[in-house]
Design a protein that fits this description.
With 360 residues, the chain is an alpha/beta fold. 43% of the residues lie in helices and 17% in strands. A six-stranded parallel β-sheet has the order 2-1-3-4-5-6, with helices on both faces. A six-stranded parallel β-sheet has the order 9-8-7-10-11-12, with helices on both faces.
Length: 360
């Protein structure tokens, strides 16, 4: 039997965000299922020996393209350039673009991306930025978030509860003043008002609902603990990368979801739970709704509007709604996620002609 070829996925799994963990696990298991005789290694460690041991290098998925810190830019570009130097086919899969502000970062991405075999993105907005801002002329496939590949494995639950169960997975945006001003100068002011609104109003409704507080990122820990105190709710966290697969099971217990997390919105959609997604202006939940779930555009709301419209007063109406996306929208999102198969076929073709790592 031929020795297994090595596919290494470099991404943000294991860095403290459950959504990134779930992306990594889903991509790893999908590649192992679709490609014969491979070992798929999932790591966030950008070490030369990991690259040298690989037959195929994949960067992904999630919103890995950003320049809040230039180290992030250099980390992933270094992987691309090292792999290119070693003659290793390299792909970006399920990629999302956050904010890239600097000319320096845009130029670095532009130069490095010329060395990629293919980029597959999580949406049209991401593809447009890669085409227009980074002048990418290579093979570009527009997909959707990798987690939508789990659509057919989700166990849907509809249970009667004496008190409705509300799941809260709210983000604590520690972005820093410089970044706030680049995104929206009023963000800090609106966010403070949002936090005060929650502190004031949640204790008033804590006896009307059973709350599940889901901590989806390490930076949300303090906020999540505060939400537990405000609601008396049950706390859920995820300790390992593999434990991220429990996320959909936890969401399936809820009657409605209030989330500030991108993969909180996706989890609610997959488990068919009514959802209200709160974020700052122009965030990725809104783009997800615009591109794939137009029935949920009104369910993506800024922190400022959340307070002004007193959205906690409408939780009962959310519970009794169908605000989880239509079946046809979900089928479309799944079909778009399957666009990753174009990359899979290309990887299979490359693997047929690849020299083993020992001879590199």
């Amino acid at each position: 039997m031929n020795k297994k070829k090595i596919i290494t996925i470099f991404g943000a799994s294991g860095c403290g965000n459950v959504g990134d963990d779930l992306i990594g696990v889903t991509l790893k298991e999908y590649l192992e299922k679709k490609i014969d005789n491979v070992e798929v290694v999932l790591t966030q460690q950008h070490k030369r020996e990991y690259i040298m041991a690989s037959d195929i290098v994949i960067i992904g998925g999630g919103g890995l393209i950003y320049d809040y810190v230039m180290e992030n830019v250099d980390n992933y570009i270094d992987i691309i350039l090292r792999a290119k130097h070693l003659g290793i086919p390299t792909y970006m899969l399920g990629m999302g673009v956050q904010h890239v502000f600097s000319v320096e970062a845009k130029k670095k991405y532009e130069d490095a991306f010329k060395n990629l075999d293919m980029i597959e993105t999580r949406g049209e907005r991401d593809s447009k930025i890669i085409r227009d801002d980074f002048y990418y002329k290579g093979r570009l496939v527009t997909g959707s978030d990798i987690v939508f590949l789990l659509k057919d494995s989700v166990q849907l639950k509809k249970e009667h509860h004496d008190k409705p169960k509300i799941l809260l997975s709210l983000a604590d945006w520690k972005l820093g003043n410089d970044t706030n001003n680049k995104i929206d100068p009023k963000l800090e002011e609106n966010y403070k008002a949002y936090r005060e609104y929650l502190r004031k109003e949640l204790p008033k409704i804590k006896d009307d609902f059973d709350f599940i507080i889901v901590n989806q990122a390490v930076e949300d820990l303090e906020f999540s603990k505060e939400l537990v105190e405000l609601t008396g709710g049950r706390y859920e966290a995820f300790e390992t990368i593999e434990d991220s697969k429990r996320l959909l099971d936890v969401y399936s217990e809820a009657d409605a979801v209030l989330t500030g997390r991108y993969h909180g919105m996706i989890a609610a959609i997959l488990t068919r739970k009514p959802v209200l997604a709160v974020s700052f202006k122009g965030h990725k939940q809104h783009y997800l709704a615009k591109e794939l779930f137009p029935s949920l555009v009104d369910q993506t709301i800024t922190v400022g509007d959340f307070v002004r419209e007193r959205k906690l007063d409408s939780l009962c109406s959310l519970i009794n709604s169908d605000k989880f996306g239509t079946s046809s929208e979900l089928r479309k999102a799944y079909k778009k996620a399957k666009e990753i198969d174009l990359a899979v076929r290309d990887i299979e073709l490359n693997l047929r002609f690849i020299t083993s790592p020992e001879s590199k």
